[in-house]
């Protein structure tokens, strides 16, 4: 198991360097630059532009800039935001709990609904339920997040008035964050109604963010289950007269779980990408909105370091998923 | 038992309502997060709303809702005859805000004024580089480093600005956000503690509201400052709920989650106007949307060609289709609400036939050109792509083939500055300080490569521009600028498209909000009626 873990860790090192290089190059490939972006419509004189380029060091060869950047990152210094002049890591730490909270709730929704829906669709293959579930899943998968979010806001917040429009908690609740997770902080605050307010603010963004992963998980569970249900050992279990629930739950589902766990692990990346749009629509103060603002302002430091940190987190989650495989299926460790 | 419960419920309701009545709150749905709370390093309108207009004050202020100058922290001033010395008498007894992180021991004095400017000006000042990479772009952009010779403390409450050259817009410039006055005592305290960064995170000013808390990208909280020299505000708590999407801001306003919002999307305005709980204030914007020809490139170097192209455009169609009634045709490079606007000037007549003939007479046939369209919606031009399409169709009628080009926003402005740029370039401007020079400088010879996208350097216009800058008498300046507008119209470096209206939707319970021609959102004097 330890060898397996070391092998996986060894693979991460070149990936991290690759991503850091890609992030560094990506932001510089974008048209424009931070100096012009920050100057706005007023513009900046050529002399002033040259002075600022010199000050930021953007006139040096890219290799030198990259090596300096990576050297700093290796010492834990992710740089200072060009736009806000605050440390990138500090901003990330302040905003990440909001994204993590949203993504976690979204993933829970996706798993709790997606897996049972997929199992049921597989068991009742060809039924109206199967067709309806897969139809809804396909629709959910194809739905543009931006439009979907706005539609839910207009209907549930505007028309029905059931949920708040945006934000993380009602403005009447004011307390210093302890953990950064609003559900927990609202409980700690001891203010009556705060938790309920925080939870109600989470409903719509979590549904929007969960939509695509839910669709993917439901479809993956269905196809994995269908494959397993056709296996000889399942037929044998049925022939032995085992209860259908036991056959599906114990014999079929456990074996169908590997590709489903893989899919769930991969959804972490989807959630991070989806968070960018979801957070923008719902004014959710997380890293998605932060990255969008940074890209618009050509804040090289935030974009390159932010992408790297997010990639590190996604890789860490995938590593955990890999370890989980090994726990679920010992053969993987040998392979 | 039932009676007891009813009584308890009534008591609870009374205490809640009582609590609400005690603290009057105004929630403003703002459009973006501020980069920081120091009023000087940044240049975004949202940065100014969140810092300079709420927390800070200036030596002079713009009259609420106007562009005229009134006394601010300076109760009076004198200008020397040569226009080189401005002496300000500071208002006595002005208090800096007392917060849980700073308790001032003295009132505002000349040291604060000098510090506020020198930190942006003198590179040897330790506060010049307290934020990594800060360029003090507004201070530099307004030409202050070349303009200022020295700032002298005459006594505690008298401060003298000595200039290198006369600058008539100097007073309005001092009313701008970058010229907000900060506390030197607070800066010294942070210096000692080694926590200079706190200056922009936990601000201290002399303005109507004091800073309470900022949850990054989410909520900014302010409280009325009891010691404000202009009197305590009627609202107790001012909250900025940062909501980037305009459609979501509109929904929040309708749902009562905020009381007032900035920059509604044009498509949402009718819906907001129809809501019985809301009102939508509107005002002529101090702005202009234009299309600049590259006057150095043939055939646009010929006045007749530029005039002919101007005459080919049906501005009314643009106003109807793009501005949807929320704008008026622009004739001059400055908006009609601004002093010195020349009312005598008539716009180029929309006449495709005459335009076609003028082009032929100028020897231009089979003209193919580019029309540049901004990729973003701006207050002065909500949909540049649509404007470009309409102009393209108009040009087709006179036999000119136009291709529409667009680039990513920063790239767009960068490419537009190229001296050999092909075609006509759409852009616009929103005024900073209500002075005509703040619009006309866009066409100055010095602005080529920066904001002069027509790459137009006309000696007659330039001489008037410089003369206007050096003249203090307003009546005389008015004449100079009226003449400059005549030259502009005759030479036609731009197609002046439109001046747009600006809308401010709010709940009907909000009173006293005055729309500002400079696009500032000020909450002093605002009240909320129950």
From TrEMBL, chain A:
Record-annotated membrane-spanning stretches: 9-30, 102-123, 144-162, 198-218, 256-277, 307-328
Main location: membrane
Subcellular location(s) of the protein: Cell membrane
Listed Pfam families: BPD_transp_1 (PF00528), BPD_transp_1_N (PF19300)
ABC transmembrane type-1 domain: residues covered: 96-321
Entries under PROSITE patterns matching the protein: ABC_TM1 (PS50928)
Protein name as catalogued: Dipeptide ABC transporter membrane subunit DppB
Protein source organism: Mesorhizobium ventifaucium
Name of encoding gene: dppB
UniProtKB/TrEMBL annotation, chain B:
Signal sequence interval, chain numbering: 1-23
Subcellular location as annotated: Periplasm
Any Pfam family: SBP_bac_5
Family matches, as Gene3D superfamilies: Dipeptide-binding Protein, Domain 1, Dipeptide-binding Protein, Domain 3, Periplasmic binding protein-like II
Keywords: Signal
Domain Solute-binding protein family, residue spans: 68-443
The keyword Flavoprotein is assigned to this record: no
PANTHER family cross-referenced by the UniProt entry: D,D-DIPEPTIDE-BINDING PERIPLASMIC PROTEIN DDPA-RELATED (PTHR30290:SF38), PERIPLASMIC BINDING COMPONENT OF ABC TRANSPORTER (PTHR30290)
Family stated for the protein in its record: Belongs to the bacterial solute-binding protein 5 family.
Protein name: Dipeptide ABC transporter periplasmic binding protein
Gene coding for it: dppA
């Amino acid at each position: 198991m330890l060898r397996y873990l070391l092998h996986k860790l060894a693979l991460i090192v070149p990936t991290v360097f690759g991503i850091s290089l890609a992030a560094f190059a990506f932001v510089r490939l974008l048209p424009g630059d931070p100096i012009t972006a920050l100057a706005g419509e007023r513009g900046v004189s050529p002399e002033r532009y040259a002075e600022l380029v010199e000050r930021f060091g953007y006139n040096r060869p890219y290799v030198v800039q990259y090596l300096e950047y990576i050297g700093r990152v290796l010492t834990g210094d992710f740089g200072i935001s060009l736009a806000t002049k605050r440390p990138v890591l500090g901003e990330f730490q302040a905003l990440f709990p909001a994204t993590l909270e949203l993504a976690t709730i979204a993933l829970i929704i996706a798993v709790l609904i997606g897996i049972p829906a997929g199992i049921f669709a597989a068991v009742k293959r060809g039924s109206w339920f199967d067709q309806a579930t897969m139809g809804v899943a396909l629709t959910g998968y194809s739905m543009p997040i931006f439009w979907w979010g706005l539609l839910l806001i207009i209907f549930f917040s505007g028309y029905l008035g059931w949920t708040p429009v945006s934000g993380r908690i009602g403005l009447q609740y004011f307390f210093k964050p302890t953990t950064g997770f609003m559900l927990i902080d609202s409980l700690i605050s001891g203010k009556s109604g705060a938790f309920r307010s925080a939870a109600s603010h989470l409903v719509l963004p979590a549904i929007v963010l969960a939509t695509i992963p839910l669709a993917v998980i439901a479809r993956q569970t269905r196809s994995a289950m269908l494959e397993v249900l056709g296996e000889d050992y399942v037929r044998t279990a049925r022939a032995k007269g085992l209860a259908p629930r036991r056959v599906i739950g114990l014999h079929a589902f456990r074996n169908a779980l590997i590709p489903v766990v893989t899919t769930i692990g991969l959804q972490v990346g989807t959630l991070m990408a989806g968070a960018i749009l979801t957070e923008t629509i719902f004014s959710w103060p997380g890293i998605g909105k932060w990255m969008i603002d940074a890209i618009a302002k050509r804040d090289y430091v935030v974009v390159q370091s932010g992408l790297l940190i997010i990639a590190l987190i996604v890789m860490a989650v995938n590593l955990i998923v890999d370890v989980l495989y090994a726990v679920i299926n010992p053969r993987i460790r040998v392979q | 038992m039932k009676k007891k419960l009813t009584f308890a419920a009534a008591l609870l309701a009374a205490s809640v309502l009582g609590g609400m009545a005690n603290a009057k709150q105004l929630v403003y749905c703002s459009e973006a997060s501020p980069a920081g709370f120091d009023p000087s390093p940044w240049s975004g309108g949202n940065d100014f709303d969140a810092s300079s207009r709420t927390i800070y004050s200036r030596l002079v202020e713009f009259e609420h809702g106007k562009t005229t100058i009134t006394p601010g922290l300076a109760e009076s001033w004198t200008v020397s005859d040569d226009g080189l010395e401005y002496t300000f008498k500071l208002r006595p007894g002005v208090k800096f805000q007392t917060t849980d992180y700073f308790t001032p021991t003295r009132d505002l004095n000349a040291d604060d004024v000098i510090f506020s400017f020198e930190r942006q000006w003198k590179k040897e000042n330790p506060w010049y580089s307290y934020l990594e990479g800060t360029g003090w772009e507004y201070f530099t952009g307004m030409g202050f480093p070349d303009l200022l010779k020295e700032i002298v403390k005459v006594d505690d409450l008298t401060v003298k600005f000595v200039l290198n050259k006369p600058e008539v817009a100097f007073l309005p410039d001092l009313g701008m956000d970058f010229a907000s006055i900060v506390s030197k005592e607070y800066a010294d305290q942070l210096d000692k503690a080694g926590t200079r960064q706190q200056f922009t995170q936990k601000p201290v000013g002399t303005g109507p509201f004091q800073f309470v808390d900022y949850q990054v990208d989410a909520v900014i909280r302010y409280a009325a400052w009891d010691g404000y020299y202009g009197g305590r505000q009627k609202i107790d708590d001012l909250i900025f709920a940062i909501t980037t999407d305009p459609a979501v801001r509109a929904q929040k306003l309708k749902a009562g989650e905020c009381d007032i919002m900035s920059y509604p999307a044009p498509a949402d305005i009718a819906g907001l106007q129809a809501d019985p709980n809301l009102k939508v204030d509107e005002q002529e914007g101090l702005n202009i949307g234009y299309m600049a020809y590259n006057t150095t490139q043939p055939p646009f170097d010929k006045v007749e060609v530029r005039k002919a192209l101007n005459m080919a455009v049906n501005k009314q169609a643009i106003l109807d289709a793009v501005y949807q009634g929320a704008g008026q045709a622009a004739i001059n490079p400055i908006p009609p609400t601004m002093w010195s606007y020349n009312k005598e000037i008539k716009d180029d007549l929309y006449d495709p036939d005459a335009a076609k003939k003028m082009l032929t007479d100028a020897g231009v046939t089979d003209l193919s050109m580019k029309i540049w369209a901004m990729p973003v919606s701006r207050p002065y031009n909500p949909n540049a792509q649509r404007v470009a399409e309409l102009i393209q169709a108009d040009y087709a009628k006179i036999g000119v083939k136009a291709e529409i080009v667009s680039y990513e926003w920063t790239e767009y402005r960068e490419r537009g500055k190229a001296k050999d740029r092909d075609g006509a370039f759409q852009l616009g401007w929103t005024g900073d300080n209500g002075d005509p020079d703040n619009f006309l400088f866009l066409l100055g010879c010095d602005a080529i490569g920066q904001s002069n996208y027509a790459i137009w350097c006309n000696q007659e216009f330039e001489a008037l521009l410089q003369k206007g800058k050096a003249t203090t008498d307003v009546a005389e300046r008015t004449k100079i600028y009226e003449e400059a507008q005549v030259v502009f119209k005759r030479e036609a470096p731009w197609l002046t498209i439109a001046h747009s209206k600006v809308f401010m939707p709010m709940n009907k319970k909000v009173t006293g909000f005055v729309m500002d021609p400079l696009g500032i959102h000020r909450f002093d004097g605002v009240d909320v009626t129950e």
